[in-house]
Amino acid sequence: MIRARGLTKTFTRGKDTVEAVRGVDIDVAEGELVAFLGPNGAGKSTTLRMLTSLLQPTAGTATVAGYDVGTHPAQVRARLGFIGQGNGGGFSYQVRDELHNQGRFYGLAPAEYKRRASDLVEALELGGLEKRTVQSLSGGQRRRLDVALGLMNHPPLLFLDEPSTGLDPHARANLWEHIVAMRERYGMTIVLTTHYLDEADDMAERVVVIDHGQIIADASPEALKREHADDVLALTVRGDSAEAVRAALGTVVGPDAPHPGEVTVPDGGTPAADGGLRVRVATTHGADRLPEAIEALRLAGLTTTSAAARQASLDDVFLNLTGRSLREEATTQAVAA
Ligand SMILES: Nc1ncnc2c1ncn2[C@@H]1O[C@H](COP(=O)(O)OP(=O)(O)OP(=O)(O)O)[C@@H](O)[C@H]1O
Q1: Which of 130, 155, 206, 285 has its CA 20 to 30 A from that of 91?
Q2: Residue 135 DSSP one-character state
Q3: Ligand 1 atom 12: the closest Cα is on which residue?
């Protein structure tokens, strides 16, 4: 459905040059649901805008839905739906008029665009809102209207640029339910961007991690976590010998163990105020390893006073790949905004 090679976009303003996208190669097969994940400014939107033919690449090629975006932009646009970051609807228009106008824009006959509009109003639970103006809708309703507008031409391929940004958790979950339902109903391929880690983890079958205009990883969330991150066991152990703790845990996660990992005793092995040593153990299958670790410590005469297994996250993946936390960047930017 999508094949891009060496996709590059450089913006020049005066003396400033921004290399927004630097040589992206990507293939998306029919029916896939792919999420582009990356921090603000990583190049996600720019990549999407090139793939939808809205922006001419500086270099590289892309074939989308069978047509070259550079030479056949009209054919590409006819086959895709694009839901951008801004709100697509005219604020003072009524919901129904917005949908009908979109149908006219695609050259549909009145009977057809009316039928499609009613179907989408029903499918996206916009019933009863047809006569409301766009500006009177809630954030979640507006986003659902955006999805409806993007689907009026029954596209085989749908692009969504940060569909759930700014929505509260309930509205996000609801929007996702609708996106998944629309995908089943219309058998679409979906490419979206997000900087919500949990969203990419839960919903996407494939996550393309993008940073500084380049793809730095591309796999299922599970494979990314397996490959690039560890689960962590967080233990508190009564005792004052970091060496004894390391030796005991080495049998569980040491170099010869079935799941080798790393045992870290921070603070130079100095016990905390409660007399316990805080220990972090990087490993795979953390939940399974936890009882083994506690048992190994017990056999070495050490008492565990607290224990928790934390599953690897996509943020750990990003951190291990870039040395930066996506979660922290998002928080910093939210505070700055
Ligand atoms: N029209 C433009 N002119 C100049 N620079 C631009 C333009 N559009 C994007 N950029 C820059 O290109 C880089 C990539 O931007 P892009 O919007 O693709 O990132 P993004 O990953 O989608 O970020 P966000 O999550 O904030 O939407 C940024 O440094 C941005 O400032």
Answers
A1: 155
A2: G
A3: 20
Pairing of strands 276-283, 262-264: antiparallel
ipTM: 0.96
User: Quick one: which atom of ligand 1 is closest to the CA of 49?
Assistant: 18
- Beta partners for residue 137, in sequence order: none
Which of these, 257, 319, 256, lies nearest to 288 by C-alpha position?
257
pLDDT digits (tens, 9 = 90+) for 281-323: 888 888 888 999 999 999 999 999 999 999 999 999 998 899 8
Best residue among 46, 161, 326 to mutate for probing ligand 1's pocket (most ligand atoms within 8 Å of CB) is: 46
Would you say domain 2-226 falls under CATH 3.40.50.1220?
no
Q: CB-based contacts of 261: which residues, under 8 Å, 6+ apart?
A: 230, 253, 281, 282, 283, 284
Domain ranges of the chain: 2-226, 230-311
Residue 140 pLDDT class (50, 70, 90 cuts)? confident
Which residue owns the Cα nearest ligand 1 atom 31?
A: 41
2-226 and 230-311 share one fold: no
Instruction: Write down the number of H helices and E strands in the chain.
Output: 12, 14
**Protein residues whose CB sits closer than 6 Å to any atom of ligand 1:** 11, 13, 18, 20, 38, 40-46, 195
What the block records as the tokens of 100 is: 């009908």
Choose the CATH number for 230-311 among 1.10.10, 2.60.120, 3.30.70, 2.60.40: 3.30.70
Ligand 1 center to residue 41 CA distance, Å? 5
pLDDT of amino acid 213: 97
